[in-house]
Write a structure and sequence with these properties.
- By secondary structure, this protein is an alpha+beta fold.
- It has one domain: Electron Transport, Fmn-binding Protein, Chain A (Pnp Oxidase, Chain A, Roll).
- Helices cover 24% and strands 46% of the residues.
Length: 158
C-alpha cells in the first residue's frame, strides 16, 4: 500500500466497513482476462481472519471460471463523499475500503450452506432467525472465499 498513512489496522474499524458496505466487487481471471461482478455478501470476521459468502445460481460464467481458476480478488467500499476544491486537482473523494484476495470455493454441505446464507441475511437484514427449506437449498449455490490477505484503508479523518 503506497499511502500507509491511510491504512487501517484496527479490527473493529475493518468490521465496521464490512458491516456498512452493501456490495462486494469480486474479480476473477478468465483465461488471462479480468472478469468483475458486483455481489451481495455476508462475512465472518474474527481474530483478523476474514471469510466472505456469496450466493448465486447453479450455473453461469463465474462458476465456469472458478472450475479452472479459484483465485479471487475483492473490493468493498463505503462512506463516499466528494470533496470539492478550488482547482480541478484539489478535488478528492473520501471513502473507506477493504480489499484482498483468496480462494473461492462452492459450499456443498447443507449445514455450511445454511451458515453462509445466514451470514448474508444477517449482513443485509440484521437478523439470523431465518429457516431454509432443503428443497430450496438444492437450487441455490453458496460460494465461500477464504481470504488469504487483505488491507483496509480510509480517506476519512479519524
Amino acid at each position: 500500500m503506497r499511502r500507509t498513512d491511510r491504512q487501517i489496522h484496527d479490527g473493529e474499524m475493518v468490521e465496521s466497513i464490512l458491516r456498512q458496505a452493501q456490495v462486494c466487487h469480486l474479480a476473477l481471471v478468465d483465461r488471462g482476462a479480468p472478469y468483475l461482478v458486483a455481489l451481495n455478501y455476508g462475512f465472518h470476521f474474527q481474530e483478523n481472519q476474514l471469510t466472505l459468502y456469496f450466493h448465486c445460481a447453479r450455473d453461469g460464467r463465474k462458476l465456469d471460471i472458478l472450475r479452472s481458476n479459484d483465485s479471487g480478488y475483492f473490493f468493498i467500499d463505503t462512506d463516499h463523499r466528494l470533496v470539492e476544491g478550488q482547482s480541478a486537482c484539489q478535488w478528492s473523494m473520501k471513502y473507506r475500503s477493504v480489499a484482498g484476495s483468496g480462494r473461492v470455493e462452492t459450499v456443498d454441505d447443507e449445514v455450511l450452506k445454511v451458515e453462509g446464507l445466514l451470514r448474508i441475511m444477517e449482513h443485509h437484514s440484521g437478523r439470523t432467525d431465518f429457516e431454509f427449506d432443503s428443497r430450496v437449498l438444492e437450487h441455490v449455490l453458496v460460494l465461500r472465499m477464504r481470504v488469504d490477505a487483505f488491507t483496509a484503508k480510509s480517506n476519512h479523518p479519524a
